[in-house]
Every structure is written in structure tokens, then in C-alpha cells.
Write a structure and sequence with these properties.
Elements: H1 4-13, E1 17-20, E2 29-36, E3 40-44, E4 50-54, E5 58-61, H2 69-72
Antiparallel strand pairs: 1-2, 1-5, 2-3, 3-4
Length: about 80
């Protein structure tokens, strides 16, 4: 699960993140962190839609290469 400190860094910097939800790259969500609570994160996509995602997904800077949690052996966990 991503920490509050990491989420706050993404929010303050406005850096675009990539959220890996499963093994298929076309299902990734890219956008900026808007808000979060204990279980969910709100991501604003480039088309201005907001998506509510589970905090257990993999959150990484969008500029970094994609790393699937399934390749790491622990789906949905980091």
C-alpha cells in the first residue's frame, strides 16, 4: 500500500503517476493525485475525469518504466 507521505509528494509536485491495476498495460491509469483516504486514491486523468482507485495498486511516476506487480509475484501489493 502506498504511504500518505508518497501520495502527498505526488500531490504537491503535480507529477503524473501510473497506476498498475493488472497485467495488461492498457488498463493502467495515468494522471495526477488529487486526494486520498485510508482505502482509496483519487486520480485526475488528462481528460479531467476523476477515478477512484484502491490504495493497494502499484503507484509509480509515469516517467518510469512500467513494472507489473504480477511480474514481482504479489498481485495488487507493493
Amino acid at each position: 500500500m502506498i504511504s500518505d507521505e508518497q501520495l502527498n509528494e505526488f500531490r504537491i509536485s503535480g507529477e503524473k503517476v501510473r497506476v498498475v491495476r493488472d497485467a495488461m498495460p492498457e488498463n493502467d491509469v495515468r494522471g495526477i493525485v488529487v486526494a486520498w483516504d485510508d482505502t482509496h486514491v483519487l486520480i485526475r486523468r488528462p481528460n479531467r475525469n476523476v477515478v477512484k482507485l484502491d490504495r493497494n495498486y502499484s503507484y509509480r511516476p509515469s516517467r518510469e518504466p512500467r513494472v507489473s506487480s504480477w511480474e514481482e509475484g504479489t498481485p495488487g501489493q507493493e
